[in-house]
Design brief:
alpha/beta; 7-stranded mixed β-sheet; 13 helices; 13 strands; binds pyridoxal-5'-phosphate
C-alpha cells in the first residue's frame, strides 16, 4: 500500500491569490518542532507569549487575546455563537461574500439578522451605517474589515464609537487584513476582532487569533456553563442562556486559556507554534513597516496592471492594501490564463465568486508574498501569458511600472 503513493512533494508554487499565500519559511520551521503536552509548564508559557504577542498585533490591552483552533471562520463562529442569544438583533453590513457568511452564521445562532447591502466593489458610508444602527437598534453589529471577495476595505475608524453611542457591540472580521492594514482595536473601540493566519500573517490556515474586551467578556461570562465532568463545588455558573456550541464556547475557552487551565479541547500545538512565529516575525518587523510594505506591493502591482492596459475592479479609494481585483479583458478566457500561469510559471492567482465570477481576477500581495520579486514575477508571467492568448499589450510595460514604484521607495 505505501508503495502506491509517492512521497509528498508539492510543486514550488508562488501563491498570489486571495489566500492562502506561501507561509514564511520561519513559520514552517517552527511547525516542525516537537509536540508538548498542553499542560506542560513550558507550553503554558508559550500560550501566555501568544496572548502577549497578539495583543501587539491587534493593538490592544485586552486580557482575552487567544487562539481558536480552526480556520478563520472558527473564530467568527466562536464570536457570534458566544455573543448572540436567541432572538438578538444583529446588523450585518454586507459588501461581499464574507458579509453573507456572517449573516448565515448569525442566523444559525437564532439571531434576528438585518443584512444591509451595497453593490460589490463599494463600501458603506458612516452616515449610512449610523442611520441603520439608529433605525434597527441592533445588539450586535458584525462586519468585515477587508472582504477578499470584492477586495474592498470598509473604513472602521468611526464605527466603534457609533456602536457604543447606541449600546451595540461591534464584531470585526479582520481575517484578510490583520497585519497588512492598520486596525487599532482599542483606539477604534472594536469590541471583538478575529483573524486567520493565511493572509497577511504569513502562516497556514488552521489557527484563528481573536481578541475581546471587557464589554464582550461580561456578556459571554454571564453565559458560562462548565461541562459537567469538569465542574467542582466552587464552579460559578452564569445566569444567561447556555452557549449553543461546545467547541466554540468562548466562556470555556477563556477558562482553558486562563491560569485555571480548565480542560477544554486538546490544543492544536503545532498551529500554536505557527501562530506564535507569525506574530513574532510581524512584530519584529514592526507593524508600521509591514503596513507600508503591503501598501507598496499593492501600488507596484496596480501600476503594473494599469501599464498593461488592464482595468482595476472597484472603488480604488477603498481597495484593500493586500488584494487587488482586475477585470479580465474582453475576449480573454480568465480560467485559461490562470491555468497557464500555474502550469508554465507555477504562479497561482485567484478567480472570483458570485456576481464577479469570470469577470475579475484577484491577485494577493500579502504576508510573506508582499515582496518586490513576487510582484515582478507575477506581472512578468501575466504579460507573457496574455500575449500568448493574443491579447495585445505593451510588452514589458507592467514590470517597468512596478519596478519604478520600488525604485521610488
Ligand atoms: C474576510 C474573510 N472572512 C472569513 C474568511 C474565511 O476564512 P477561512 O477560510 O480561513 O475559514 C475569509 C477567507 O478568505 C475572508 O477573507
Amino acid at each position: 500500500m505505501s508503495d502506491e503513493f509517492d512521497e509528498l512533494n508539492p510543486a514550488p508554487r508562488l501563491l498570489m491569490g486571495p489566500g492562502p499565500i506561501n507561509a514564511d519559511p520561519r513559520v514552517l520551521r517552527a511547525m516542525s518542532a516537537q509536540l508538548l503536552g498542553q499542560f506542560d509548564p513550558q507550553f503554558r508559557d508559550y500560550m501566555k507569549q501568544v496572548s502577549e504577542l497578539y495583543r501587539g498585533v491587534f493593538q490592544t490591552k485586552n486580557r482575552w487575546t487567544l487562539l481558536i483552533d480552526g480556520t478563520a471562520r472558527s473564530a467568527i463562529e466562536a464570536a457570534l455563537t458566544s455573543l448572540i442569544e436567541e432572538g438578538d438583533r444583529v446588523l450585518v453590513p454586507v459588501f461581499g461574500r464574507f458579509g453573507h457568511l456572517k449573516v448565515e452564521i448569525a442566523r444559525r445562532c437564532g439571531a434576528d439578522v438585518i443584512p444591509v447591502e451595497v453593490e460589490w466593489g463599494t463600501v458603506f458610508s458612516d452616515e449610512f451605517l449610523e442611520k441603520n444602527i439608529k433605525k434597527h437598534r441592533p445588539k450586535i453589529v458584525a462586519v468585515s474589515h477587508g472582504d477578499t471577495s470584492t477586495t474592498m476595505a470598509q473604513p472602521l475608524q468611526a464605527l466603534g464609537k457609533l456602536c457604543r453611542a447606541h449600546d451595540a457591540l461591534l464584531y470585526v472580521d479582520a481575517t484578510a487584513t490583520l497585519g497588512g492594514m492598520d486596525l487599532p482595536t482599542d483606539a477604534w473601540q472594536l469590541d471583538v476582532v478575529s483573524a486567520g493566519l493565511q493572509k497577511c500573517l504569513g502562516g497556514p490556515s488552521g489557527s484563528a487569533p481573536i481578541t475581546l474586551n471587557e464589554r464582550a467578556e461580561k456578556l459571554i461570562s454571564n453565559r458560562k456553563h462548565t461541562e459537567a465532568g469538569l465542574r467542582t463545588p466552587d464552579t460559578i455558573e452564569g445566569e444567561g442562556p447556555i452557549i449553543r456550541s461546545n467547541y466554540f464556547d468562548l466562556a470555556m475557552i477563556m477558562d482553558y486559556w486562563s491560569d485555571k487551565a480548565l480542560n477544554h479541547h486538546t490544543e492544536a500545538t503545532t498551529m500554536l507554534y505557527a501562530a506564535r512565529e507569525c506574530a513574532r516575525i510581524l512584530l519584529k518587523e514592526g507593524l508600521d513597516h509591514a503596513f507600508a510594505r503591503h501598501a507598496t506591493a499593492s501600488k507596484a502591482l496596480t501600476e503594473g496592471l494599469k501599464a498593461m492596459g488592464l482595468k482595476l475592479f472597484g472603488d480604488q479609494k477603498h481597495k484593500m492594501a493586500n488584494v487587488t481585483g482586475v477585470h479580465i479583458p474582453q475576449g480573454v478566457d480568465g480560467d485559461k490564463v490562470r491555468r497557464a500561469l500555474l502550469k508554465d510559471f507555477n504562479i497561482e492567482i485567484g478567480t472570483s465568486f458570485g456576481p464577479l465570477h469570470g469577470r475579475v481576477w484577484r491577485i494577493g500581495t500579502m504576508g510573506y508574498n508582499a515582496r518586490a520579486d513576487a510582484v515582478l514575477n507575477t506581472l512578468g508571467a501575466l504579460d507573457a501569458v496574455l500575449s500568448q492568448e493574443n491579447h495585445r499589450i505593451p510588452r514589458g510595460a507592467a514590470v517597468d511600472a512596478a519596478l519604478a514604484v520600488y525604485r521610488q521607495g
